[in-house]
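Suppose a colleague, Dr. K., hands you the sequence of a protein chain of 504 amino acids and asks what its three-dimensional shape might be. Before reaching for any lab equipment, you can write down a predicted structure in token form. Begin with the sequence itself:
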Amino acid sequence: MHHEHPLRILRHSQKSVWLLIFPLLRGAYHIASAEDVLVWLHGAWFDLLILLAILGYGALDWYFRLFQIADDQIYVQEGVFYTRRSYLPLHCLSALTIEHPFLLRPIRACYVYADTAAGLLDATDIRLMIRHRDERLFLEALPNVHQGQRHHAEHKGGFWRILFFSVIFSSSFTGSLYLAAFWFQAGRIARDLITQYQLDDRFNEVSETVARRLNGIPPVAVSLAIIILSTWLLSFISNLLRYGNFDMHSDRRIVSVRSGLLTRRRFILRNKKINFVDIRQNLWTVFFRIYSIAVNCPGYGNKRGSIPICLPIQTRRELDNALPMLFPDLRLTRNTLRPPWHSWWGYVCWPVMAGAVVLGLDYLDAIFPAVELAQTYFPALEGAISFLRIMLLIPITWKLLVQITAIFTTGVSIADGRICVRYARFTTFHTIIADTDCVVKVRIYRHLWQRISGKCHVVLYFQSEVTRRCMLRSMNYAETLAQLGEVLANCTPLPEEPQTSLTE
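The predicted structure, expressed as tokens, is then:
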């Protein structure tokens, strides 16, 4: 039996921090003046005693938490007053993650996450903080990738490929999520830094200086542009640190992935536990025929902001050679079911209508007299509205181009027990390749006007820890029933309730 790293004592002690309420209440009850504060400090032995009790309970919790790998299973025992034992058979393991955070490397500590397809959704089944020397116990328990064998494949992401991947898959929205997480989780520190260094005043000075150099652009426009660029840059740096030093090895049983510059991560995935392969592109990479391969496997890529990437940047020839590493005989197939050409309005209607609304901002003063009055007394408002219109038109135009491209790329193909689904979600193009047994639900619904034109919307749900839905718009209703009905017929139902369903 093995213990976790001793640093885990502090983590276990967090559960008993509530005990500090007793010395705080004792001190608050007796404090009536500044002299009482000094008296309370002289009697701090009781507070220290409570602190030692908390650390002592954490030490006991650490001492009685043991783990072992024996008989092809991971065994974890924990509990001071009552004992709880957990067993995880290695053949049920879908993903094993070994993480070496930058701050823990000097003390030779690392995290181990063991995941299966069971348990709570999007949650780790077993999490341990272990000593660096105990890492070999987990690595030796799993089969190694056979080097130099016929079915062995190796890929090392070069610096420029990772840099290009970080550029195209970074977004201001993701960066704003990181910034929001920092603000809410460490809000007081962030506010103190802003107050101490007067960052808000400096930010306003920079915005006004840039606005003076760029004639005709209001300072609020410059401020918004700086914020958008900063959040995108934050997402870019995060992706670069997460996926730098990328390395992947694979055979027919195991996929081994390493990545990370500051926090180094190693993922070991079982091929047979992979639900589906997700080939991702954006508008630029669609035209240049560049692909990034992600896989959906329980326990891999669960953290917020991370992409379960398996191969970052691939050309079409590299893609065809890489797909068989993940599934035997896996390949891309042409669409056999695609939206008809006269269904183009179903793809572009929302961007077109949103663009019309934004362009209509020029006529607000004619519709609402209060807007004209506000612009008279606040001249800066007119410049802000003009800039807002431009900033809104940029993503709307980009989305319109994505939807136009989606008309030509969206579709489904079924061959040899595999299904290939192409669709666009937000600004990313996805190609899902999976066994037909991985389709757990197909939903077909039609609006009133679609019943007249013979069209429908199709939503496919794939087996995954978190619900994964693929929506295909404005498909031909008769062809959809003919092709997807065959998929449902080939699926194996569950003992009590059907695994797949087709509803209208």
